[in-house]
Amino acid sequence: VYLAFQYVKPINEIVSATVRVASGDLTPIDKGKVSLSPEIETLVENFNGMVQKLKERIELEKKLEEMDHMYKVGQLSSAIAHEIKNPLNFINLTINQVRDEVKENCKNDSLYNLLVMAEDEIKRINNLLINFLEYGKPLQLNFKKVLLSELFEHLIKIVSVKMSDQNIAINLFLPEEELYIRCDHEKLLGCFINLVINAAESIEKNGTINIEISRDDKNVIMHFKDDGKGVSEKIKSKLFDPYVSTKTTGMGLGLPFTKRIIEEHGGRIYLNEDYKDGADFVVEVPLEK
Hints:
289 residues, alpha+beta, two-stranded antiparallel sheet, 15% strand, elongated
């Protein structure tokens, strides 16, 4: 009876475990709960190995489903990007014509400058669409030596209207010395605009964005700080992955594009997790001496 009990008890545990597995609970058998003979121990080890492989298979199937979903989203996104390009070109041509009319007839410098800025923004959107359609291919970057203060003054000029509408103060803190970087002006400017717009959307209304710039021996270090809602813990580890977004609109491609462009410049971007008053995105790019 004793020997029978020694075999029956672990077999009952294995039977219970198979029932749990059949219902979706992939918890392995705890060998410490039962005394095992060599034969039963081998059986339990094989059973636990089977459960582990089953877990791995389920995880693999989930990843394949996610990859299939991303592939379908990518196809849809490419189709949408193609559809956007045609009306965007028409808008650009229209603004170009209106700009020329204003220049010749109205003599209104303020309106003319607004149209020029609108045209520049449409060109930037068009460039983003081109980059999106060519995602995965090497980026075509036009490197030149750029004065950092001029780059950020251009940035402030572009985003100031949006910041004013949302009652958001944007402060730029530059060091006294002139700093130069070697970069593609348009693409890097687009990265910085994306970071500022993200910060503004996190704040929504009535807040502050501080852009703090410093340097070390090798790099220019730029902090984009806001006093918005911050980044939730559940997406911090996936923040720069494609199609990850906290917004109800958008496809979560802004930060992945930004990361890729900055890395193509030999730099890096990361979230400063020690900053608790909102979000602080840090960009480092090589200093041009």
